[in-house]
């Protein structure tokens, strides 16, 4: 049996089921929240989500069987797993609070993550020496599930902000909310531009020096920015406009930086098209759809997700991480950038939980904090691997 | 002190500074500003309105310090500062992460050289060792102090208040709760039904003259204090770590074949490096399933391993004398699989491949044109790998060859074919010329008292037996001498001598040794003290001469340094070895960190996954008042109440906070 084929079709299946489920959750907007009975569309939505999650589990297990190690060892596998975690976290929170509107936002986040992941190399790859440990599964899975639960806090916080912020006049708050939403467009931009050039089968090869070794890298998007100090090998393709600065570390920094530029560019175009059609801020466009959601409940979900996610994050991101680091390198803490950013995340949510003790930090302020926490998580996931060199700079 | 104490109308005497009466919850006049209750309809329920030292006394300097550190606001600020500082430390790599291939590993040069003006500022501010800077440590220490004071300031009064609380609560306390309802007519039966249902939901129910307090999950209130204890233990463990008694961290480089003392074990333990192994993934491995990935990524390391033997010193030894060693353990040290013995742990942390163990040189007359061999010494031995026995040696003088060489033990070696200048053409051995530039032979080897012989081909590149795998004997070239050769000498790079004297009286003096030779601005330098690219300045004193002929020799380098040299030096061979970098750790503080982590996890789970819920039922006339409070998860407590009052006349509690919005 070809596990790898089953695995990738299962992932596609999951992707489409989540997509359809999102539409059904969208249809629950009209449901009256006063009635505790679930509308039909909500039931279909959660059923599809559960089936999709099962499909993604099939992806996970078969890929594990194919490669012989848990599929959390490179960027594609890790981000896909994170997306799966977001769905799981949504399912858990859904069954506590029965809040369908969460699905309308949480599932697209999971979809964006999975699409983002698929832009990285998807081949199964062998484990480098340092990853050959059972702690790989234990540490990585706990961290990403914890981060996924913390992301639900962001989802609830974001809905809260869209629901509550006064859109009648432009203000600092509407501006920053729009910035957050634009951030999501960048991810969509990444997937769209990546998908288009992949379909065109675009390639441009560069030669450059990395850590003293001559390496080549294959750009799958036209090079706006080339690797630092590089030579273009492919003929008849666009020459890079400028080179990546030398301080960008991490494997293949130039190519990743190029992807970022394309993502922002494409995201901006999609965003502008959206604005042209709606003639309103994105936040203002969505706001009327959320009138029936209770802001207090959103606030509580946002806080609860942190309350559930924080202990888990401590366990996976700090304690398990330390045990593994002790086993592998003889020091449980070494101030590696990824470690530091895990600590930063931990400090942030610790501050969040303490602030909740004070009056005036519930509601909107709390929602902004939930967004900030998610930004830190994404920074740790993407930027630390891209810009800051370290032990975790895989993929 | 009794003047300071506040007596409530319910008769309970509260400590000074109490906001809500410990027993009945009635707001105590004059103290409402403390928790901001004077401006709000709803009561601030944190710490149950108990009297906290920090909010009560503010006269002496100690009071002020106490108040400062007990403030959550200060705590949060400290956390935020630590957060920002930690993040700053990742802008550029910390000094321990300066890459080994950097232009310079000296921080003073590296940061400015790599990151320009920002790097320079970063370095000058000391951010390159930010996490061990005094101010970062101070920040963490302040967080520690804040943890202790915050916890004490709150835990003690909260504990007392929850212990002293009465089921009967004052009406103002109830109607200023977030969840509250009033019902006019309720039968006793209905009330009992509600109580029974609350009990079923595992509430502990107290009944005082019809006043009901249903409570569950009070222990979750202690969660924060438990996890703070865990954190304090971790911080204390970090301080303990600074003592060498409890923690040591050392590093040792050990060559293959070398046995040396392990640092920071007081000379008690020795390590021997049997072999260092570096494996990479083979694309064909595991059914070739990683082929695509390996093609893209290039070589991927699979295993770093040192096969080591650990010895312990027996008894006392006199310094300088070889100690008496006893084998303790033998094992493989791999990444992710350290080797443990006694109180020490050894980690595979580094390696250096292909260092030079020794170099052999020959001294040739300058006029000797091409290298021509004068004689070859062969060694006959058995092919049995496990029991390799040398059977004898013989030397062939290439100018004066014999047909058969008889060994002392009766073996005979017959020269069947001789190729002075051997090369292979179309699978057949040929000779370019009759000059012995690359001699090779075909031999018949016969054991004593036997006519049966084995055919062997022997050249400078190695030997092949015609019998293949069944062969019993093997011939190898053990030594050779070139024409015009004055002699050879071998320098053991682990212990280079200053002078080598050859049999014929020739002396070679090492004037200068560059273990890791490189040229910088036309000057010879050594990049490190490790023999990675050895080079020498040598003085050769031929026999009956005390005039030194100087030469510079190294790998791919051979220059005379004095004019008119009669002799030149040639590299005749070398041996290589790998070196393993082993980290040696002794850490008695780990159990404290583990204990701290476990306590923290218990506390944080206790505080986050359980909730303290209280429901008060207060009879009033023919009806009753219901109020409820929880420290978190209001959704959950509302569901509990809904379930309890289902099918009764009692009004569902109303969320008064939602109404306020």
Automatic annotation (TrEMBL), chain A:
| Chief site of localization | membrane
**Presence of keyword Aminoacyl-tRNA synthetase:** no
Please provide one cellular component term from the Gene Ontology annotations of this protein: plasma membrane
Origin superkingdom = Bacteria
Q: Give the matching InterPro entries.
A: Cyt_c_assembly, Cyt_c_biogenesis_CcsA, Cyt_c_biogenesis_CcsA/CcmC
Positions of the Cytochrome c assembly protein domain:
277-392
Mode of membrane association? Multi-pass membrane protein
**Regions crossing the membrane:** 6-27, 39-66, 78-97, 104-124, 136-162, 174-197, 260-277, 301-325, 340-357, 369-391
List this protein's GO terms for biological process: cytochrome complex assembly
Keyword tags: Cytochrome c-type biogenesis, Membrane, Transmembrane, Transmembrane helix
What molecular function terms (GO) are annotated for this protein?
A: heme binding
Where is this protein localized, as stated in its record?
Membrane
Write down a Pfam family by its short name.
Cytochrom_C_asm
Return the PANTHER family for the record: CYTOCHROME B_B6 PROTEIN-RELATED, HEME EXPORTER PROTEIN C
Q: Which NCBIfam families does the protein's record reference?
A: cytochr_II_ccsB
Q: What is this protein called?
A: C-type cytochrome biogenesis protein CcsB
Q: Which gene encodes it?
A: resC
Automatic annotation (TrEMBL), chain B:
Q: Which stretches are annotated as coiled coil?
A: none
* Primary location recorded for the protein, binned into one broad class: membrane
Q: Name one GO biological process term.
A: cytochrome complex assembly
What keywords does the record list, in alphabetical order?
Answer: Cytochrome c-type biogenesis, Membrane, Transmembrane, Transmembrane helix
UniProt superkingdom: Bacteria
**Which Pfam families does the annotation name?**
ResB
Which locations, inside or outside the cell, does it occupy?
A: Membrane
Is Ligase one of the keywords UniProt gives this record? Answer: no
Q: How does it sit in the membrane?
A: Multi-pass membrane protein
Tell me if Glycosyltransferase is a UniProt keyword of this record: no
- InterPro entries named in the record: Cyt_c_bgen_Ccs1/CcsB/ResB, ResB-like_domain
The segment(s) forming the ResB-like domain are 72-641
| Membrane-crossing residue ranges in chain numbering | 74-92, 134-156, 225-247, 588-610
GO annotation, cellular component aspect:
membrane
Can you name this protein? ResB-like domain-containing protein
